[in-house]
Amino acid sequence: MTVKIAPWSYSSLTNFEQCPRQYKLLKIDKVVPFKETEAIRHGNEVHKALELRLKDKVPLPEKFMQYEPIAAKLDKPGVFVEQELALTRNLVPCGWWDKTCWTRGKIDVGVKNGDAVLLGDYKTGKVKPESSQLELFAAMKMSEDKTINRAKTMFIWLQHGKTTVQDVHRDDVPTIWGNFMARVNRLDNAFQQDKWPAKPSGLCREWCPVGKKHCEFCGS
């Protein structure tokens, strides 16, 4: 029996690529309930504080005041925060919960200026840049807003005071979507064939939450 594919995000797609079996057990079968870790809680708290700082001019809490210089640089006319983007398979904007929704993503912070936009994604962990995620941000925003021709995308590594920057032009967008379509097709095939092979790696030992009950490689 095949399972209807759910709208994908960058994180869910990379989860599938890391291990199809883990993806099915966690995203479809939901064998392990979601548990908020300390890292997740901290990240959510930081994101919310920065959202309120830029959206409603609420001062950052004392414990996050080290991020004020970053917020000050982003606090410009045209700023937007926590913008939800959703597209159909034909790359037409739609509602987040629409039945036609094919992919979803959220922009932590953006600043639009004419036909250009800055798109930022806050990171609270180790510096691990991934250029394809930045490209996806730009492709989604340009598909949603046809007036944008240039995007400066960046990971904002809050704890390290660093940024990873990538520039994307509208002419790049078809290639970006082509690359992601090829990746998503593999996810589509897994749903259609209902095949979810395990992909053992070093992450099985400490980072897989499914447990040996559901996968013989977990903990190995």
Structure description:
The chain has 220 residues and is of the alpha+beta class. The chain is built from seven helices and five strands; from the N terminus they run ααααβββαββαα. It has helices spanning 10-18, 20-28, 38-56, 68-74, 131-144, 173-193, 203-206, and strands at 79-87, 103-113, 116-123, 150-157, 162-169. A five-stranded mixed beta sheet has the order 1-2-3-4-5, sandwiched between helices. Helix 5 (131-144) links the parallel strand 3 and strand 4 (150-157). Helix 1 (10-18) packs across helix 2 (20-28) and helix 5 (131-144) packs across helix 6. The chain is globular and about 50 Å long. The two termini are 30 Å apart. The model has no long low-confidence stretch (mean pLDDT 91).
Fraction of residues in H or I helices: 25-40%
Separation of the first and last Cα atoms = 30 Å
Low-confidence stretches: none
What fraction of residues sit in β-strands? Answer: 15-25%
- Side-by-side strand order of the widest sheet: 1-2-3-4-5
Shape: globular
